[in-house]
Amino acid sequence: MLKISETLSIPEQEIILKAIRSQGAGGQNVNKVSTAIHLRFDVNASSMSQLFKQRILNHKDYRITKDGVIIIKAQRFRTQEKNKTDAFDRLKELLKKALTVKKKRKPTKRSKASNEKRLDKKARASKNKALRKTKKITSY
User: Fold this and answer.
1) Residue of 13, 107, 112, 125 with fewest CB within 10 Å of its CB?
2) CA quadruple 6, 7, 12, 15: dihedral positive or negative?
3) What is the DSSP string of 4-68?
4) C-alpha to C-alpha distance for 116 and 111, rounded to whole angstroms
5) Local confidence band at 130 (pLDDT 50, 70, 90 cut-offs)
6) Which of 2, 32, 21, 1 is nearest to 94 (CA)?
7) Predicted TM-score (pTM) of this structure
8) Which of 67, 14, 62, 59 is nearest to 39 (CA)?
9) Are 11 and 45 in contact (CB under 8 A)?
10) DSSP 3-state assignment of 79?
């Protein structure tokens, strides 16, 4: 059982893990041993409530496919066990992020005093700039 939060947990039977060979440098070991983990979690086929499923599917993330499958490839570490825990941690993080509801921003107004202060500051700057200008002398 993978515990996401106090109210949500996922049975491990719903998560498909597959060991694959890692990419990149690593010597002879990389060609022999399948240490990377390919995690697949089908949101639509899961036992979560419909509300949770909808929130996850609406979350914009490149790891969620159009079919509603979350795909995570973990290959940071050299051992399969560490990569497995890394994949589970990344799945937890993704689901937590998808399920958090952002607070709506309340639009605020400037106070009258702050507005007056701003206008006074602008007026003073304008006067300073006016004093810097050279007066043109016109003679007839």
Assistant:
1) 107
2) negative
3) -SSS-EE-GGGEEEEEEPPPS--TTHHHH---EEEEEEESTTSSS-HHHHHHHHHS--TTB-TTS
4) 9
5) confident
6) 2
7) 0.63
8) 14
9) no
10) coil
Q: For 31-83, write each residue's pLDDT tens digit.
A: 677 778 888 888 877 777 777 888 878 778 787 878 888 888 888 887 888 88
Place of tokens 């036992």: 47
Q: Give 97's contacts (C-beta < 8 A, 6+ positions apart).
A: 59, 61
Residue 33 tokens read as 């041993």
SS (H, E, C) 80-139: HHHHHHHHHHHHHHHHHHHHCCCCCCCCCCCCHHHHHHHHHHHHHHHHHHHHHCCCCCCC
Place of tokens 């509603």: 68
Pick the CATH number of 2-99 from 3.30.160.20, 3.30.1050.10, 3.40.50.1000, 3.40.50.300: 3.30.160.20
